[in-house]
Amino acid sequence: MTPAARLQTAIEILDAIAASAREGGAPADAIFAEAMRARRYAGSKDRRAIRGHVYDAIRAVRSAPASGRAAMLVLADADSALAALFDGSAYGPQPIAPGEPRAETGLAAAALIDLFDPLIGEGDGEAMLARAPLDLRANRIKANRDDLAALFPEGEAIPGAADGWRLPPETAAAQHPAYAEGRFEVQDAASQYASAALDAARGDAIVDLCAGGGGKTLAIASLTANEADILACDTNRARLQQLPPRAERAGATRIETRLLNPGQENAMLADWRGRATRVFVDAPCSGSGTWRRSPELRWRLTPARLERHLADQAKLIDLGADLVAPGGKLLYAVCSIIAREGRAQVDEFLNRHPGWTADSGYLPDGIGRAAGHGFLLTPAHDGCDGFFLARLTAPC
User: Fold this and answer.
1) pTM (predicted TM-score)
2) CATH topology of domain 134-186
3) pLDDT in tens, 124-153
């Protein structure tokens, strides 16, 4: 493909991503992959260049643009070499006309920024959209961080994460034989901090209420040396089915999975009511803390979608509380920097549940900032995804 053809392809893919964002459809990565399957003639260099154009434009534009061209013109204004590719050549974009509209730039739409936690400042914007490093977590059942240092000497230790090792963005670590052997997992530092904050121990009875594909479930199994009983639940069959083979690879043999039917969660977890010493509620959320990895999420969030997330979060934290044994602990977490999903959700929980208390001092020194009854982690302050977490103790 010519450079101009690559640029036109990126514009077409951006059109599809913007439309999908407005409609709540497939994510950007899935759309990009499908577009490349439809263009089998594109080589690896073509794919890398097209992907670069697409994601550079997504990071630059604050909300779903009217067109992919309007988004790409933003980049062309800052790059004369890119602007020169708007040359009208075969398969390339048409020349730039005077006064053509551009997409709006910035971190996010003003109405969305107004929802951020008060701790988010002007200096956070660049870090929230920068390319994220690749974080690894050593699986204690089979390895430790020193092993990761030997495998990937180009990396560095993650501050405050005992098992964490950080590599440059897009390192192909998952292709290393040690990954297939279950010696490590790819996991952002924020998730490693949250898993450790649960303070699970050998012999605990643990519920991971929103386990998804099981990343934090496996981290908890590692931290407890495969000597705790863990029930991993979710309502998404496709995601939960990913966990058993991952657990087998990791040597985590005490994980039970349970698919929950939406609306029937209480009945389906009746055998665990009041029994769990630890409950992890990694609730579905806006994903606003993960914009480094999925910048198009800024284009997807609407007031209606946020309200649905808030309702689900309140339901799940209450459900989790019913499972906790007297004196046990619940960790509530969202990969969000929106105050209503974080500190406000915990404030409301504590008002609904007299006798429950919020813990403190469960994060490594220098990690996180106090946000109400919990802690907020951000890329600028903590070098990880944006995350809110709060550990709560049940009355005895």
Assistant:
1) 0.93
2) Alpha-Beta Plaits (3.30.70)
3) 888 999 999 999 999 999 999 999 999 999
- Residue 335 annotated to the active site: yes
- The full set of domain ranges for the chain reads 3-106, 134-186, 189-393
Q: What is the dihedral of CA 247, 249, 254, 255, to 10 degrees?
A: 10
pLDDT digits (tens, 9 = 90+) for 324-349: 999 999 999 999 999 999 999 999 99
pLDDT tens for 49-96 read 999 999 999 999 999 999 999 999 999 999 999 999 999 999 999 999
Question: Comparing C-alpha atoms, which of 286, 299, 288 is closest to residue 378?
Answer: 288
Which residue type is seen at 279?
A: V
Over 90: is that where the pLDDT of 26 sits? yes
Same fold, 134-186 and 189-393: no
Helix ranges (H only) for the chain are 3-23, 28-37, 44-60, 68-78, 80-83, 110-113, 124-129, 145-151, 177-180, 189-197, 215-223, 237-240, 243-250, 265-268, 297-300, 303-323, 343-352, 379-382
Query: Catalytic residue among 210, 233, 335, 384, which?
Result: 335
Q: Amino acid identity of 381?
A: H
- Just give the CATH number of 189-393: 3.40.50.150
